[in-house]
Amino acid sequence: FQAVEHDGRGTLPTHLSGGSDHPLCPSSLGCSDQGRIRLMENFLGVPEVSSALMAILVVAATITTFLGTVTGTAGGLLLLAFMTFFFPLTVLVPMHTLIQLGAGTSRMFMMWRYVKKELIFPFVIGSCIGAFSGAQIFVTLPSEILQGILGVFILIVMWTPRLGAGGPERLRFGILGAAATFLGIFVSATGTFLSPFVAHAAKDRHVHVSTMATLMAASHVAKLVAFGFVGMAIGAYLPLIALMICGTVAGNWIGQRTLTRMPEKLFRKVFQVLLTLLALRLLLGAIIEAGWLK
């Protein structure tokens, strides 16, 4: 195969009209079509994907899912950032959502006994509302404002326990379902947004990881329906998606066993540090996009 640099003028559309970034994946998170690598080989019929790249992507799905399991956050965001080097946004968004749905579903089944099941129904109802309501409001907001708000909000909730645990739990997670899914249509940090609330509701690391996976799976389903991805041309990528989902299952299996051996205090500390760094990364991205740092 031949590797070439993609200059943003390929045959697949990569930008929305009226802006340089897809609202689902702002460039400050590493999600840009500039410099995307194109590989002139169609392994298993997958466009521009070689056998070597397919193997690399499956391994990446395994590793990031493992990290997401043992840290309680960031696995999906890491995989998204890596995949932007190889796929246009019009393909990346539905692919990543399907892969993360597979990852969350397999983790949910593996750890079902730990899930806080009383949170599922209100969260699903909220997710349905968030997926189908008022999307235009956020489309009109610059991505740097969204990222800045999310970054500050995550830090406040993470380090202010009373705020993260305020109000009736079911009502709180119903509202969170709407907010997380609503935001998930336009920014790529909804797992990061939801994590501190799950951390306050789940005092055990197994409950945290399993509940987080279940709620995010529900959010991904709602997003898929809202996006209408059935009409998008991703059928050729299904072999790759299926293999990457298998990779996430392996990552969940290894991560679950590692999590069992991890002390609770270590899990909490790693989670707090990593989530804080991700929130600061969002703030830095907002500052860069706003042009405050050259």
Brief characterization of the structure:
This protein is an all-alpha fold. The chain is built from 12 helices and 2 strands. The protein is globular.
List the helices and strands and how they pair.
Elements: E1 3-5, E2 37-39, H1 51-71, H2 75-83, H3 89-110, H4 120-132, H5 135-139, H6 143-159, H7 161-164, H8 169-184, H9 190-201, H10 205-227, H11 238-261, H12 264-289
Antiparallel strand pairs: 1-2
Give a quick set of tags describing it:
294 residues; two-stranded antiparallel sheet; globular; mainly alpha; 65% helix
Count, helices: 12
Shape: globular
Structural class determined from secondary elements: mainly alpha
Sheet bearing the most strands, described?
2 strands, antiparallel
Describe the model.
By secondary structure, the protein is mostly helical. It has twelve helices and two strands, in the order ββαααααααααααα. A two-stranded antiparallel sheet has the order 1-2. It starts with a strand and ends in a 5-residue tail after the last helix. Mean pLDDT is 78; it is low at 1-35.
